[in-house]
């Protein structure tokens, strides 16, 4: 009987393990987490669809957590070698290195993006995909993050951000920046929307 129990335990879905990890991290530091649970598959796929799989530059993911959006990027066709995963939580970094051994995992603060990436990128990024809890931060912090992201990206590359809020995480009227929004993703819990910002 103990053998059957251990076999059953080993077949436990990774998704449940990820949810437990997320919940534990959220309880410890709620303002550092974008969500209580990992992003749903539909939300992750919606974010990934804005990234060109045929690009050549790095794809930076901010706050990948356990890698729900990372998995959607890989499924979309983005080569793991192009991925630069910026994660603050050291245990999530270890998990990401195990799951995505060809990606570059950077343990650091995404809100200090210039300092975190200063010696990491060899070329301008093709996209920045963010799972950060932007709406929990002051607007000046959000604006600095987007400004630093644009400085690291090729012209017209997408900065992709999701939010559960009904208002955009970054104002739609930024000078010289085009803004696009997805339909609200009702199948995600809680419902979310994806915002895409580009600077020509």
From TrEMBL:
<dbReference type="InterPro" id="IPR001737">
    <property type="entry name" value="KsgA/Erm"/>
</dbReference>
<dbReference type="InterPro" id="IPR029063">
    <property type="entry name" value="SAM-dependent_MTases_sf"/>
</dbReference>
<dbReference type="InterPro" id="IPR020598">
    <property type="entry name" value="rRNA_Ade_methylase_Trfase_N"/>
</dbReference>
<dbReference type="GO" id="GO:0032259">
    <property type="term" value="P:methylation"/>
</dbReference>
<dbReference type="GO" id="GO:0008168">
    <property type="term" value="F:methyltransferase activity"/>
</dbReference>
<keyword id="KW-0694">RNA-binding</keyword>
<dbReference type="Pfam" id="PF00398">
    <property type="entry name" value="RrnaAD"/>
</dbReference>
<protein>
    <submittedName>
        <fullName>Methyltransferase</fullName>
    </submittedName>
</protein>
<feature type="domain" description="Ribosomal RNA adenine methylase transferase N-terminal">
    <location>
        <begin position="43"/>
        <end position="184"/>
    </location>
</feature>
<keyword id="KW-0808">Transferase</keyword>
<keyword id="KW-0489">Methyltransferase</keyword>
<keyword id="KW-0949">S-adenosyl-L-methionine</keyword>
């Amino acid at each position: 009987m103990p053998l059957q129990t251990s076999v059953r335990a080993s077949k436990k879905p990774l998704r449940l393990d990820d949810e437990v990890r997320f919940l534990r991290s959220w309880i410890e530091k709620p303002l550092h987490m974008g969500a209580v649970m990992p992003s749903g598959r539909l939300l992750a796929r919606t974010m990934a669809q804005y990234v060109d799989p045929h690009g050549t530059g790095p794809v930076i993911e901010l706050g990948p957590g356990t890698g729900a959006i990372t998995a959607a990027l890989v499924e979309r066709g983005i080569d793991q070698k192009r991925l630069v995963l910026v994660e603050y939580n050291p245990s999530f970094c270890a998990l990401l290195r195990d799951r995505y051994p060809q990606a570059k995992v950077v343990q650091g603060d995404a809100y200090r993006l210039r300092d975190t990436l200063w010696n990491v990128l060899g070329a301008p990024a093709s996209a920045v995909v963010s799972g950060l809890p932007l709406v929990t931060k002051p607007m000046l912090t959000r604006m600095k993050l987007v400004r630093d992201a644009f400085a690291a990206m090729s012209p017209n590359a997408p900065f992709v951000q999701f939010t559960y809020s009904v208002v955009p995480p970054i104002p739609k009227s930024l000078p010289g920046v085009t803004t696009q929004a997805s339909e609200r993703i009702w199948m995600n819990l809680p419902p979310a929307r994806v915002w895409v910002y580009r600077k020509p």
